[in-house]
Here is the input.
Amino acid sequence: MPTTISGSTGVTFPAGGVGNPAGAVVGTTDTQTLTNKTLGSGLVADASLITSGTAVASTSGTSIDFTGIPSWVKRVTVMFSNVSTSGTSNLLVQIGSGSVTTSGYTSGAWSANTSNSTSTAGFLLSSSNGATANYLGNIFISLLTGSTYVESHSLGSPASTNQSMGGGSVALSGVLDRVRITTVNGTDTFDAGSVNILYE
Here is the structure.
């Protein structure tokens, strides 16, 4: 039988209570506490999870590119594992929207056993790179506001007893969709290690 609330006028509920309606039950201005729910692929959760790229061997070539980064990404982490090059040109990370941005950076790096260095061509990662350096560590690139991104890093090179840290910023023409790892002179080749990215 239907259930009537005591003291109410014309308020009844079906026997057994109210079932859960199918489909969307929360409006655009409603709030609801979700318990024991699973958000599927393509929903908001998909844009808040940390996503790993595919590791690339840094054993050849003058640059390593990661492209196709989704437009919702607010932070990219570039990971180095024993990355080495054939020469002494300093390491550089460049980002871009549609194409790689090669100017307009404010960037500096400091190495524990040398002086500071700066660059406007990209995020400078070291100020005393050597052919025996094999860098390990993380580079963090985060959206500050609009299309302006900031960078910070901390890298170590056990083989050359060198450590490097620094930071920078750059304004892109749009949202970040690519990252390039290269060197200042653009001609030294990678000869050891691997690189990957995380984005969120």
